[in-house]
What does this fold into?
Amino acid sequence: MSFKEFLNQEADDDRYGPDTNKVRQYLKGFNTADCLNMTFYNIHTLVPLPDGVTQLIIGNENLVYINKEAIPDSLVSFTCRKSPSLRRLPDMPSGLKRFAVANVPVTKLPRLPIGIESIHASCTEITELPPVYAGIINISVPGSKLRRLPFKHMPSTLKQLDIAGTDVKVIHGLGRGLTHLNISNTKIRVLPPLPYGLLNLFAANCNLLVPSDGLELGANLEGIRDYGLRLLDWHYSAWEKERSIERCERIKHDLCLATCKSPIIDSFID
It folds into this structure.
């Protein structure tokens, strides 16, 4: 069914869910310059959408199916959240830049276009990511069941990587463009050398993480003026035990530490 056909359906046609007619009335007055937010409606299947829609937010407890034909080729940003009955997502259009799912029990992400810039998949059942390409900027999958990263050589364009609470155990290398890294609550044992542009590092509750060749904690922190690091959290990780941090008193005013309770960490804060 096309979008025009959907608009011309009888008012009592509720094939897409109890709120089908409310959605129909909403779309009749929809301005494509606006973000299309469908989270307010109780529908179990995504209705056909008009051409020109660039941003879509969808999700409710009864949503079970999203038809590929319902998603317009003009879509640039797709968000689906809080849909416990949704098990599968359709392949995304070639112009999509931002993809996000949260609290959706999908086990596999759909095929994403070459130009994708941001992937967010929190609290999902995914164990792997689809291939990512050179233009990727953000990968955020906290609370998912991800087992491995989709690359061995991190793209230099990647700025944010959040794998907190996942099953990832190995990071082969960090890209030179990375500014935000969150590995909290993982079983990662070794981190590669930190890139100089890194601003935020979260490694809380990494009980297996220990300093390694080229990543001795004190050595990294002593060069913090070059790194520009401003936020650091390794609370309850093995790094807390490294007394080498005490050698870094001279840079204590360069650090802004959040949610850190270690007495070693507290020695940085006046």
Q: What stands out?
A: The radius of gyration is 22 Å. The first strand starts at residue 36 and ends at 37. Residues 19 and 41 are 6 Å apart (CA to CA).
